[in-house]
Amino acid sequence: MKLRYSLCIVLLLFVAGLWACDAQNCYDEPSQTGPCKAAFPSWRFIRERWVCEPFVYGGCRATENIFDDEEECRQLCLR
């Protein structure tokens, strides 16, 4: 029985750690288009205004503050 509780606690700590790592992306500097010439529709979190905004990512030199869609940005940064 103690083993089961210990495993549950370890699992909860692991999940909490993953959540904290994902949320940290929101506090990086917002990604910019960058010098590359691709055009990937992306989203970034602007912490000064507390909003997710779209931008066109060029394909290189992004920070961790880059998301595939608005839903992902909102779920991680606006909770």
From TrEMBL:
Q: Which InterPro entries match?
A: Kunitz_BPTI (IPR002223), Kunitz_BPTI_sf (IPR036880), Prtase_inh_Kunz-CS (IPR020901), TFPI/VKTCI-like (IPR050098)
Which ranges carry the BPTI/Kunitz inhibitor domain?
26-77
**Database matches in SUPFAM superfamilies:** BPTI-like (SSF57362)
Q: Span of the secretion signal? A: 1-23
Q: Does the keyword Phosphoprotein apply?
A: no
Which terms in the Gene Ontology molecular function aspect does this entry carry? Answer: serine-type endopeptidase inhibitor activity
Keyword list, A-Z: Protease inhibitor, Serine protease inhibitor, Signal
Q: Which Pfam families match?
A: Kunitz_BPTI
Identify the GO cellular component terms for this protein. extracellular space
Alphabetical list of PROSITE patterns matching this protein: BPTI_KUNITZ_1, BPTI_KUNITZ_2
Q: Which PANTHER family match?
A: KUNITZ-TYPE PROTEASE INHIBITOR-RELATED, SERINE PEPTIDASE INHIBITOR, KUNITZ TYPE, 2
What is the protein name given in its UniProt record?
Trypsin inhibitor
The source organism is Drosophila kikkawai
Lineage runs: Eukaryota, Metazoa, Ecdysozoa, Arthropoda, Hexapoda
- The primary gene name is LOC108082141
